[in-house]
Amino acid sequence: MRTGIYLAVTAKRNRRRTASDLSRQLSSATGTTVSRQIVYRRLRHIGLYVRRPFRCVPLTATHCHLLLTWSREHALWTPQQWSCVMFFDESRFSLQSDSCWTLIWRAPGTRYHQANTIERHRYGGAGWLVWGGIILGSRTDLHVQSVTMTRHIYEDVILEQHVRLFRGSMGADFLFMDANARPHLANIVDECLQSEDITRIDWPAYSLDLNTIEHVWDKLGR
């Protein structure tokens, strides 16, 4: 009984400790030697399981305030208004795991608790960049590239070959929502949007869940 309590307290204090680490720490602190399998069994018995941590974008109080303000301003938009918005984004599909094999001890129903999350918004390693846009009843073709998106590529390939065509077919009601990435905010991009009379929706930084296409990328397993 005491062994189980000690393991539970230790695992909750540092959820990234492996079963081998917990076994060694238990032996050092109490003189009791148990195997990794017993550690797993004892922790499962009290409701702690090995799971991947939930990854989220780091948000400050300012980010949260701006996000709430934007949401309230658009809460009463009608389906007709949203049907004129095209959601654009590029997503990076990594060719390697972004978790670095990080696992934690977690109880059922606590996935989004702060202790079980890792804040991160940058990922390294090799990967492919996939760009696309969706609007109610339609979508763009996917654009795939292995190089980093730059302001020149964004203007020449994305805006000129895709966004401009949808603006022409939908008229002045067309609204454009991109990903707030640095290349999207360049001066030449603003000039291109102005010259094509394309209205872009301003939205808070680090509020990826507001852009519908972000949920599409998640379903595709980026």
Structural notes for this entry:
- One of its GO terms (molecular function) is DNA binding.
- Residues 85-220 form the Tc1-like transposase DDE domain.
- With 222 residues, the protein is α/β, with parallel strands linked by helices.
- The protein contains 8 helices and 10 strands.
- The strands form 3 sheets. Strands 3, 6, 7, 8, 9 and 10 form a 6-stranded mixed sheet that branches. A two-stranded antiparallel ribbon has the order 1-4. Strands 2-5 form a two-stranded parallel sheet.
- The protein starts with a helix and ends with a helix.
- The model has no long low-confidence stretch (mean pLDDT 84).
Sheet with most strands: 6 strands, mixed
**Could you give the count of β-strands?**
10
Question: What is the count of helical runs?
Answer: 8
Share of helical residues: 40-55%
Mean pLDDT: 84
- What is the general shape? elongated
Poorly predicted runs: none
Our estimate of the beta-strand percent is: 15-25%
Helix and strand content put the structural class at: alpha/beta
Q: What is the chain-wise order of helices and strands?
A: HHHEEHHEEEEEEHEHEH
Radius of gyration: 23 Å
Distance between the termini: 43 Å
